[in-house]
Amino acid sequence: MGDKGTDITKNLQSKIKRLKEELKYITLSGREYSDSETESILRKRAAELYESGFENTESENGTEAIVFKTGNETYAVDTNYLSEVFPFREITKIPCTPAYILGVVNYRGKIISVTDLKKLFDIQGDFLNEKNRILILKKDKMELGVFADEVIGMILIDEDKLQRSLSSLKGIRERYLKGITPERIVYLDAGKLLGDPKLIVNETI
To answer: What confidence tens digit (pLDDT) does each residue in 21-55 have?
Structure first.
């Protein structure tokens, strides 16, 4: 088979990875799937990937990102920083903190601060409902919760095709911006979010 066989093997491995990620995020809707439902969904997805052809690898290129709604805007962050996604639950308010700090949650025995990007970026909208999620971002020992009005799903982002700035995304939003995708999704720099001490509430508070 030679090089062609190696390419097919790599392509299959990439598709298997995508299926595993689909399984990982299959409960983003907030409902629990039975084993038979999960198997059915993944079998259908596997068939779609197979029919797309092993030689077509263009869609495999890029950085995997999770896409979510914040107010009337759509954002994405690199899944390499994503630790977990779970439904919004009661948050403990912390006095004397900025408005964009919703409060803290107990996450696996640790106190994690939760940031509301709507208030941080001055975006209109307040949509508390069953679709709300908290994204836990992590880098080394630093962790941060990000409130999302709704999680949309997963995409692959080609960073070479990003628009690096936009006139409507100036000021504080530009500080955390990696770029804008052709689909007009705001791709955030999760590393900069995690590295900003203003977004982290010390667990001793």
So the answer is: 555 554 454 455 555 665 565 566 555 545 544 33
Round to whole Å and give the CA distance between 83 and 145. 10
Tell the residue number behind the tokens 């100036």, with chain if given.
170
Question: Global pTM?
Answer: 0.68
Burial per residue of 139-178, b for 16 or more beta-carbon CB atoms within 10 angstroms, e otherwise: eeebbbbbbbbbbeebbebeeeebeeeeeebeeebeebbb
Every domain of the chain and the residues it spans: 2-60, 63-199
Low-confidence residues in the chain, pLDDT < 50:
4, 26-27, 29-30, 49, 52-59, 203-205
Q: For the domain 63-199, what is the CATH superfamily, name and number?
A: CheA-289, Domain 4 (2.40.50.180)
